[in-house]
Queue: 3 jobs
Job 1
Amino acid sequence: MTYDNLLIERDGAVAVITVNRPKLLNALDSQTIDELRRAVLDLKADEAVRVVILTGSGDKAFVAGADINELAVQRPTSGKEHALGGQHVLDLIENMGKPVIAAINGYALGGGCELAMACTLRMAADSAKLGQPEIKLGIMPGYAGTQRLSRLVGKTKAMELILRGHHISAQEAYEIGLVNRVVPAAALMDEARTLAAELAGHAPIAMRYIIEAINKGLEMPFAEAAIFEATLFGLLASTEDMREGTQAFLDKRKAEFRGK
Ligand code: COA
């Protein structure tokens, strides 16, 4: 597959997607959104890929939002389709069934913050800035940011961040639970690759079900979510990886998971 606005790199079981429009701080235009959709579907189907890292090119921005050149000319029907198109791609990322690590190397604003929130885990450079500044453009988040942000950091902080539209530091994002970890900017990609390598050694089907149980379960009543969890747990008992993981423990050796 060829892409104009993404770089895709594969290193064993880890794939790195880099949004590559550095002159516009990696802003997401419709073409880039569509390329992300294709890349995610491609990597999802590729059994050799167990973990994905998503980052932005250059040292200034992860993604500085939806492309404002395109937003400026939206009309009601196209605006709705634009938002739904972005939401669809973020849903694909969130439910890819493989961990997607956002390596937030700079500004993650608007659609960029929404993109990071759709990822499974978020690691931020200490220089990164995050926020939902749409209010300053007279609009609001459209890639489900009102929903993901309030679920991640709670209603109190989400209301303030979205209504005020100010940027917060990586450290503040960590303190409110928006990112998992803050690392020195120069170490970001190494740290992301180390985490990716750790996850790539885990049983892929178990990771897929954990992601599904948390993502889908959070939207269900507790009792139903617990039954859903038990069903997935039961399904894992049918995998070769479950036999391998438990037997390796008993044999006092390292498990080799094959995703079967
Ligand atoms: N869409 C389109 N272009 C964007 C963009 C976006 N979301 N974010 C930045 N750019 C462009 C700028 O227009 C500028 O283009 P130019 O060189 O042709 O003038 C280029 O990227 C560099 O940005 P600039 O604003 O000059 O950098 P800065 O360091 O002064 O400021 C930001 C950086 C991120 C604070 C600022 O670019 C910004 O506020 N961007 C918009 C963020 C936003 O509102 N996102 C939500 C969109 S829904």
Job 2
Amino acid sequence: MKILAIGRNYVAHIEELKNEVPEEPVIFMKPDTAVLRNNEPFYYPEFSQDVHFEVELLLRISREGKNIDTKFARKYYDAIGLGVDFTARDLQAKLKAKGLPWTLAKGFNGSAPVSEFLPLDQFPDLQNIDFSLQLNGEVRQKGNSSLMLHPFDAIIAYISRFITLKTGDIIFTGTPAGVGPVKIGDRLEGFIEDKKLLNFEIK
Ligand code: MG
């Protein structure tokens, strides 16, 4: 399986990082070795002093497809989950300054904790899903899928023009405002609506 992710998909987060609003989605990848499941702890990497959390809604691909039309995109994912796109912000800043790829800043081991997935029929409206992240019991990020610049179906259509999607692939759909650093000993808890899906420690 592969992990695809979209950057800069919520205006408030683009503004907090002082990035430009992109005309087309910004896409990057994480390797399968980035995945943490079942609320395994995240081990802080030695190469960074500024690892940030970014909570994001996830799509689980259920069918192989390329060049998918937006109006058929819904047939290619069957479940929504919650994930954290851990980012070594100090390393990313150096790479961005040189115009180099973000791969190491975004794709290191454990940089993609993912929750269990909830079937689509549990969501009355995919364009109105609340999600949030708490750091040590305090709400730090709150988002709603209605605020995405590129909604789920548009992301599927765009990515599949370039990269074939396969069953089991996961798409990170971007983070709302409020990203910030973690430190050893912290606990992150993530919610979709009122359901707690993530609950793990930084070690
Ligand atoms: Mg992100």
Job 3
Amino acid sequence: MEKKDNVFLMLVTAVAALGGLLFGFDTAVISGTVPFIRSYFALDDIALGWAVSSLLIGCIGGVLASGKPADLLGRRMTLLAAAFLFFVSAVGSALSEHLSTFIVFRFIGGLAVGTASMLSPMYITEISPAARRGSLVSLNQLAIVIGILAAFFSNYMLVSTGDDNWRWMLSVMGVPAVLFFAALLFVPESPRWLAQKHRKAEAFAILQRINGTALATAEMASIEASLERDEKGSYTEVFSKRMAPILWIGIVAAVFQQITGINSIMYYAPMIFAKTGIGLDSAFMQTIAVGGINFLFTLVAIRWIDRIGRKPLLIAGTAGMIVSLFALTAAFYFERFEGYLVLGCVLLYIASFAASLGPVTWVVIAEIFPNRLRSEAMSVAIMVLWGACFLVSLTFPYMLNVLGGGAAFLVFGIMCVLNLVFILLKVPETKGRSLEELEKMLLKH
Ligand code: BGC
């Protein structure tokens, strides 16, 4: 029996997934600070939108900027830089005295989130055995969700700490950032990157530890074969006519993950619940319920994604999102906030997203592109994803306060209907097929 170091693989994956955890924490922590930074910096709706969204512009920059260092310095070094930026952003935003400094430090946090959103899945993909790649990529989404939950929870614990409560909420992230940095010092480089840099012995040693000698030898051979072709991958080719149909699927899936409104709830949940007339404290409790449901239903997706496939999950989840959004539209339109109606609708919406668009979008974006162009094509799709995320979170406070919750949720509901049509007509079922089979199936020759 060949020795495979499973514990090592799980530890290394967990360290990389800390990037996902910080991604989740940093994007969600803002929601608990909204009422307090609004009054501290005296923000109107548009200024608040900027304070919340500045991180997301940084994310776009992070995705753009991390490709080159990831190739030149390595995946691990680039993730180390992200961990450092996470720390700087936590401390800097917590100590901010002016809106402009606050925005700059949140932007720096965004650079870190954007980098982690590319590099953590990339690193996990490159280090994991082919047969387990899918579930390990989904674990990164689970880490994102745990980060979001941790942010909600820590915000809830800190809400009564006085005038500086929002500063404490933001500074908490410094702790996992330091942990991420320290843990990264102990993980190896990606074997695929090492092979690219002609450090083949080191690459082989890592592959051997994870896969055993026989598989490692085969894997090494296919990495070398793919690297020969890798050198020819370019953005010109990503935007070529031949790639266009798949690139569009990746881009449209990324846009729909965001314009169906998930982050209006993730970032502004207390504001939505407060509109229904319940107190801020229980609004925070309900926000934690949102995080808990998000976590549980991501587990549902992880369990079913390789059994029933991507498409049935996407279809069922989108249908659930449509029902809950139209019910929310009606509740806000007729101002019927009694009982737990709004909370129930919001939780159904989150559960539906968590079991479908949440993880499956990342999996599909990672699967549909050919090996050779994966990193370039993924970066285009992920950049668009952050762009769409930015637009939604910038405009949502305005939509909620000026047009009303009814109109905001109606728009998201209509986007979900369009997304359902897109899924039914355009998204390919990728379950159970090897990446090479997918390449043949999706890329017309
Ligand atoms: C999305 C994030 C979102 C999170 C919620 C992720 O897949 O990309 O924008 O905040 O899921 O769970």
